[in-house]
Amino acid sequence: MQNLIEVFHHYAKNEKHTLNKEQMKQFMGAELSGLCKNQKNVESFDRMMKDLDFDGDGQLNFEEFVSFVAGVMFSCNEIYVKRREQPAKGGACQVTK
């Protein structure tokens, strides 16, 4: 939990302790690069920011940021569980128990 707080404040470098679009892009590029390497669509990024911005101020506060992180974690967990449930096919990327 402490790491999540520290990461947020590392990128939220303003007096309001919020992330603007550029800071969110920096966060995603540095911390989620494996998940975002194929995500180049500016429109989808803008839509995501708008959907996460519950209070409509154009910035993400900590609560909105945590909502994003929770969504990413939920999606990653679903993928992880599906991969674990698949029979092993001898490929290079296997989840071991």
Automatic annotation (TrEMBL):
Bilayer-crossing regions: none
Domain called EF-hand: residue spans: 40-75
Protein name per UniProt: Protein S100
A GO CC annotation given for this chain: extracellular space
Protein source organism: Chiloscyllium punctatum
A Pfam family recorded for this sequence: EF-hand_1
Top-level lineage group: Eukaryota
Record's keyword terms, sorted: Calcium, Metal-binding, Repeat
Taxonomic lineage: Eukaryota, Metazoa, Chordata, Craniata, Vertebrata
Gene3D superfamilies (UniProt xref): EF-hand
Record-level Gene Ontology MF annotations: calcium ion binding; calcium-dependent protein binding; transition metal ion binding
Listed SUPFAM superfamilies: EF-hand (SSF47473)
Keyword Metal-binding: yes
InterPro entries: EF-hand-dom_pair, EF_Hand_1_Ca_BS, EF_hand_dom, S-100_dom, S100/CaBP7/8-like_CS, S100_Ca-bd_sub
